[in-house]
Write a structure and sequence with these properties.
The protein contains 17 helices and 24 strands. The protein is an alpha+beta fold and 575 residues long. The chain starts with 7 loop residues before the first helix and ends with a helix. The structure holds adenosine-5'-diphosphate (ADP) and magnesium ion.
Length: 575
């Protein structure tokens, strides 16, 4: 194809894609505009996942009648004048391209009235062209209605996920902004019914109660008081963080705002996790809503069109202010650094190993008397394990745990061992209907193929007993509302789909209980190559000791290799 310059209309569509990727991006730009217009009440309405309709109504300043048409033009903004203004941006918007971009890929109508006018102004734009401007009655503020999003950009329409998924993103967006702006009243209507509402009373805890639940909101710790005494002032860190007892299996409950802009920044996540270090078990993450306030010129928000990435001038300062403030709050409530340890209670006390002896396994381990004769066992610990007491020495190749026992050295395969532990736990919890579920705050919509769909239908009860909460949500579509608590994967959907696939395949098990227990264990177990802390290794060995068949993985391969003292002596020619 010959080289030529794109027509302005085509170029505009391409550029629009940078900011306007999906319904939630429209929602984000419009909500930000309402917040910049000092609205105290914002209603977001979406139908059909946002492709049919997105409407944002605010009670903000409104737009003067003679300026209304300008809003759809590129780089039309009231927020930035000179390039110097870009060095210290105090508004959420500044690029002046959102409304223009939205208008090129949809039908937009904007009705607005300032406090000085008696009547409002209505302006409409279809696929980039302003088609009408009329006077019309209007409440004070601005209502932007976006219809037929991407109807003229089929490629982008195809790229969208299911209605439920796009709806979920808009919901996440609105709840996030509600957390950052507790003084603004947010209402979200999905296909006509209220899906979320905040009071706008200025109380962050109240918003969290609406986003999560009352218990969670009440348990949260206030961040920041006492910061002045300790000199942590710049930047200022405030918000609410979860106590160490309230954790989640992934990072998606850690929310950050910089100068009240929602940001995604790895540094902030890392600083928060560092602050919790020692308070939480490995691979557990806090719930947190952290606000960071700093001089506008110290943060660059002009990094990406979507404006959710930022760069800090003084990274180290931000990092340490966040870490110190969080740490201080945590130590003030629990001065002793306690690692929570979960003691599994699977095998009944006195249970004796009754597994087959694997090929690699030299004799000796099946003799429980060996463990019983050891004096180092705390008296309260029930002697139920077929393993001798092991003292963890370290990790080799991030894959094997090296331990010392009464009769030599043990190499434990961390993945196989963990698989065994989880397999027995899940199986037992299912049998006793005691599985714990970890609820997902923003339920994840999942589309299944015919085979998966059938599997979920036929094994619904079993899935439920293992801790999965799946709910029908349309043809071949389900809402994933919860996963077994011990599944620590960040991506719930991916984890669920992988479990389904393995369940279908069978993993070598006939019994459905065992199939499911194995599928969950296999995908959740720590991998070879993962570095473990001493504490984690000790924990794992303790848990392994409590298994009914600690010496083999669920498939019968060894979880450990024993180099007996006699073997070592022979090898070294000591006897
Ligand atoms: P930006 O927000 O980057 O300035 P936009 O294209 O989003 O660019 O909006 C263009 C201009 O339209 C804004 O600068 C503002 O003056 C005006 N505007 C947009 N939405 C609203 C609103 N909800 N209330 C008042 N003014 C608005
Ligand atoms: Mg804007």
């Amino acid at each position: 194809m010959a080289i030529r310059i794109l027509s302005p209309e085509v170029a505009a569509k391409i550029a629009a894609g940078e900011v306007i990727e999906r319904p939630a991006s429209v929602g984000k730009e419009l909500v930000e505009n309402s917040l910049d217009a000092q609205a105290t009440s914002i209603t977001v309405e979406i139908n059909g996942g946002g492709t049919a309709l997105i409407r944002i109504q605010d009670n903000g300043t409104g737009i003067a009648p003679d300026e209304v048409e300008l809003v759809f033009q590129r780089y039309a903004t009231s927020k930035v004048n000179s390039s110097q203004d870009l060095d210290a941006i105090s508004t959420l918007g500044f690029r002046g391209e959102a409304l223009g971009s939205i208008a090129t890929v949809s039908h937009v109508s904007l009705l607005t009235r300032t406090p000085n006018e008696d009547a409002g102004t209505l302006v409409e734009a279809h696929e980039g062209e302003t088609i009408a401007k009329t006077r019309q009655g209007s409440p004070q503020g601005t209502t932007v209605t976006v219809r037929h999003l991407f109807r003229n950009v089929p490629a982008r329409l195809k790229f969208l996920r299911s209605i439920a998924s796009e709806t979920g993103r808009v919901q996440a967006l609105v709840t996030r902004y509600a957390q950052a702006y507790p003084e603004v009243r947010f209402t979200l209507l999905i296909d006509g019914s209220t899906a979320f509402a905040s009071h706008g009373a200025g109380n962050m805890r109240e918003v969290l109660a609406a986003v999560y639940d009352l218990d969670t909101a009440q348990a949260m710790l206030e961040l920041g008081p006492g910061a002045e005494e300790s000199g942590v002032l710049d930047p200022k860190v405030w918000g609410l963080i979860g106590p160490p007892s309230l954790t989640r299996a992934n990072r998606s409950y850690m929310t950050f705002f910089v100068n009240r802009r929602w940001v995604q920044n790895r540094l902030l996540g890392y600083a928060l996790e560092q602050a919790y270090h020692g308070f939480l078990m490995e691979r557990r993450y806090p719930i947190a809503v952290v606000n960071i306030t700093m001089p506008y010129q110290d943060v660059d928000v002009n990094v990406h069109p979507a404006k959710s990435e930022v760069r800090f001038q003084k990274e180290n300062q931000v990092f340490s202010a966040l870490q110190r403030t969080v740490r201080q709050t945590l130590t003030s409530v629990s001065p002793i650094h306690q690692i929570q340890t979960q003691r599994p209670s699977i095998a009944a006390p006195g249970t004796v190993w009754r597994g087959q002896e694997p090929a690699f396994w030299p004799g000796g381990l099946t003799q429980t008397s060996e463990a019983a004769s050891l004096t180092s066992l705390p008296p309260t610990l029930p002697l139920r394990s077929a393993l001798p007491v092991l003292r963890v020495l370290g990790q080799v190749q991030n894959t094997y745990i090296v331990a010392e026992g009464p009769n030599g050295v043990y190499l434990i395969d961390q993945h196989a061992a963990h698989e065994r532990i989880l397999f027995e736990r899940v199986r037992e919890a299912m049998r006793r209907s005691l599985s714990e579920t970890q609820s997902i705050v923003e339920p994840v919509p999942i589309e299944l193929d015919a085979e998966q769909d059938e599997l979920v239908c036929s094994q619904r009860d079993l899935l439920k007993r293992s801790g999965f909460q799946v709910e029908p949500f349309g043809p071949r579509t389900y809402l994933l509302r919860g996963v077994p608590s011990l599944m620590t994967q960040a991506d719930h959907k991916e984890a669920f789909l992988r479990v389904l696939d393995m369940l279908n395949e069978g993993g070598g098990f006939k019994d459905w209980h065992e199939r499911l227990a194995y599928s969950i264990a296999c995908h959740t177990a720590i991998r070879a190559g993962a570095s473990l802390t001493q504490q984690e290794m000790v924990e794992m060995v303790l848990q392994l000791e409590e298994c009914q068949q600690p010496q083999t993985c669920p498939h019968g391969r060894p979880t450990m290799i024993h180099l007996s003292s006699g073997h070592l002596e022979r090898e070294f020619g000591r006897r």
